[in-house]
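Fold sample X.
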Amino acid sequence: MKIIIINGPNLNLLGKREPEVYGSQTFEDYFETLKIKFPQMELLYFQSNIEGELITKIQDVGFSFDGIILNAGAYTHTSVGIGDVIKAITTPVIEVHISNTFSRESFRHQSYISGNAKGVILGFGLKSYELALLSFL
């Protein structure tokens, strides 16, 4: 089973950015933990701060992978383009957020991804990614 985790803007700052919200672990370190926990899966990881690069990556894998776990960061709430590409592909997408977006600013309550995703997991810290992986088993 081939799964890619795609992270959007500022998620490269995990471990440094607002540790009270996002924790103190880098995503790269956490990703190594996921690979150990899920040896039956081929896990890949991609991160970009650029909306178009995220869309291109989703297009590249969206017809050949078994699953996409997407944390589009702030683009979740602003990008019609990312919402459209999720609708256009055949690979199932799980939308993930580290924090509970509904307990934060009101603009974070809107998602252009959720309506086209297989499911949404939020508010469980980095464990949200693990829960998303379990959904593909």
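Fold sample Y, listed below.
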Amino acid sequence: MCYKWAGRTAAHCLASGLDDYPRGLMINDDECHLDLHSWMSLFAGTMASLCRQLTSWHSSDGQTAALCDAPGWAQRAATLNATLHEVFVGSSKGSGVPLADFMGDQPVAKGGRVMVVPPWRTDGRCGPQFPTERGPGDCDPYGGSPCCSPSGWCGGSPDFCNCQGCRRCLKLEERQGLLKTKPYHSPHLGYVSLFPLGLGLLPCDHPRARQLLEALKPGSADGTGGGKLWSRHGVMSLSSQDPLFRQGEDYWRGKVWANLNYLTISALSRCASHPDPAVKELAGQAHASLREGFVSTVLQALKKQRFFFENFDPDTGQGTGVGPFTGWTTLVALVMADLPLALDDQQLPADGREGQAAEL
């Protein structure tokens, strides 16, 4: 059992809210998206929690029984949480990505690895005047602008697709001499990877949680060293070692966002209270560093740039994107007040163990 976001293209997964966060270059019917699966597990657990409360108040209410007993929310939550360790582990194993999207068939690059860098430009330009290392620049064949005009612009209207000299760029599966394809899990470490930990579905002492804690490990004051997702300004949306880091639109490919920082800092706060000394130390160090860095970044941008911003540059801390943005960026107030996301405890199976999961 798994879920996938609707309407995904090779360039965007808008329904997820993580617009240009890298998924697979090829789109498949059997894809499974880790962030959506995590949300569904959380929602099922939340319904189970609400039902327990309702049942305690109205134990003889037939309507309550119909809403709570028949759907079996607790069992659904348990099944979804167990599925995390069945569907989302595979070719990602050993890659440093503990849990990852299942992307279905993807093109194999040289050396047998999955191809992650698209063979087309991502800036809307194309043709011989805007070449790539492979030749004349291509347009994204899976998006809304698959055609290259003689003037070197990508578009999707007849002016771009049906004019003299216009060229429709081929999808990967339509190209001659395409490299072999193979089912893959995503090799990308980033915000999607953190959802099971951030939503309380992965116990802090689980081996896969340990990999995430290592990725958040703080570096030095000058910003060097540290884990792959750590920066002086907060948790980055994509690993600094990813080939797509800060590439293309660079929206969810390295920028620091308040909503996922709040979820992650909340998770680190919980893990910093874990009885295992190793987990407690690692999580505590990451929590202190990322909390201080994120709060300082938001406040410095507010002081210097006069606004709360949509996201922040992981290198400079400068506010970027929309401003003023007093939506989720004001979650900084909860971080400053040391008010992490509160989760109710529930025992759910995790990878063959009895592990602690959580629900709202």
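Sample Y note: DSSP finds nine helices and 14 strands in the chain.
Also: The radius of gyration is 22 Å.
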